[in-house]
Amino acid sequence: MAQSASWALIVLRGALVYDLTKSNAWVGGVTGAAMLPALFVTPLSGLMADRFDRRRLLAVTYILNLAQNLFLASIVISGNATEYHILVLAIVNGSIRAIEMPTNQALLPSLIPREQLQNAVALTQLMQQGARMMGPLLMLPFISFFSPEPAFFVSAALYAVGWFQIMGIKTTSRGVIESGKGVVSNLVEGVRYIYLHPLLLFIMLIAVFHCALTMAFETIFPFFSRSTLGLVSEKQIFEGPTFLMIGVGTGAILGTLLLARIREAKTRGRLFLWFGIISGLSPVLLSFTFNIPTAMVAAGLMGASTAGFMTLSHGMVQAITPDAVRGRVLGANTWHVLGAMAGFNLVNGRLMDLSWMTPELLLSATGILFVWIMVASFLVHHLRSIYTRGIPSTTLKA
Questions:
Q1: Of the candidates 97, 79, 83, which has an alpha carbon nearest to the alpha carbon of residue 36?
Q2: Helix count (H) and strand count (E) of the chain?
Q3: Which of 18, 110, 300, 309 has its CA 20 to 30 A from that of 241?
Q4: Would you say 43 and 335 are in contact if contact means Cβ atoms under 8 Å apart?
Q5: What is the pLDDT of residues 276-289, one digit of tens each?
Q6: Maximum distance among all alpha carbons in the chain?
Q7: Which residue has the higher pLDDT, 393 or 15?
Q8: Is 184 exposed, middle or buried (0-12, 13-18, 19+ CB in 10 A)?
């Protein structure tokens, strides 16, 4: 539910700030502001996920995000919201989410048998990626039949439901913090573990390029809806990105469902390669669409391929990482990939305000660049090994 709330907010914030400013740079700034805290908070949140009871820590993050969602909804519906309010609250939301995500990921292996971890990661990703559809879908009736403002309360309601679900978990889970080491030493343990483990390092690096070049599309959607799809009224400025995100979310569900029943390491490795290539080609396809139905189909392909790629990436990181440092490693991994998404949302917003730049050109250029990166990654032994054989069983950690 928190994921659905988050994606609903991403769409609503971007459309609202575009409606207020007509500036793509502001859309990129607000979208990036919700992700940039990952650069500063996530390393600390990984340490927190290993030091404290993960279930209780997760419950606290849900309550805090519920509070900031209610505040945002109240100032929007009262007509007092400005782009600066949205920016500050995006930073608050992103900071709390930077604690929530690695904690959520670190809690998962404690809830299921070890042999079912890969499939559990796939099913978890199914729920998380499918939230791209669920959040926007739940708020679409409010936007279409009433006005965009009440839709902001949908996000708050989803966080409330999520909090009740978290409180139903009874399992206690935490990592191992070495008392002989200082806070800084424990803090950088996750980053050190990734950078000293070549297989983990290259999985993370290819995911960073993927997030930067194929998943920083939230900034582009409002202007794409207006300039390419011809949705120009105030209500349509909200509806266009919502329809596109529903398409992305629907595809994400299908892409993740495809992985949920696949157990063979070799097949997963090959899918990791093909999902990466398709995730680069699908934005190019989106750039050639001309109306909502065709755009939603292309967005669905984007969602299926990016969700499949990131599900496999998360699953491999989970499988390789020992539980003692899981929170810090996942925190460091989230730090890198969200940082890439945040940075490129900011860059894309700036680029979209250039007179010669179009959404079609930007989507095609970044997509093709990532396809070339995937092809070039065959030169890296560790990645080539994954593509052909999957994760070797000798690397799996209990």
A1: 97
A2: 17, 0
A3: 309
A4: yes
A5: 999 999 999 999 99
A6: 61
A7: 15
A8: exposed
Gap between the Cα atoms of 73 and 129, Å rounded? 24
Nearest to 245 by CA among 136, 318, 140, 333: 136
The confidence score (pLDDT) of residue 394 equals 47
Tokens of 111: 């809830």
Query: What Cα–Cα distance (Å) separates residue 180 from each residue in 28, 115, 177?
Result: 43, 33, 9
Paired tokens of 304: 């299926």
* Count of CA atoms in the C-beta half-sphere (13 A) of 155: 30
Angle between helices 37-51 and 326-352 (to 10 degrees): 170
What are 14-51's pLDDT values in tens digits? 888 988 888 888 998 888 888 777 677 766 766 666 66
User: Cβ(330)–Cβ(317) under 8 Å?
Assistant: yes
The Cα 37–Cα 315 span in angstroms is 24
Nearest to 298 by CA among 341, 243, 349, 375: 243
* Sequence letter at residue 21: T
Cα angle, residue 141 at apex, residues 138 and 146 outer, rounded to 5°: 135
Q: Is the dihedral of CA 119, 398, 169, 101 positive or negative?
A: negative
Q: Please name the residue that has the structure tokens 């070549």.
A: 198
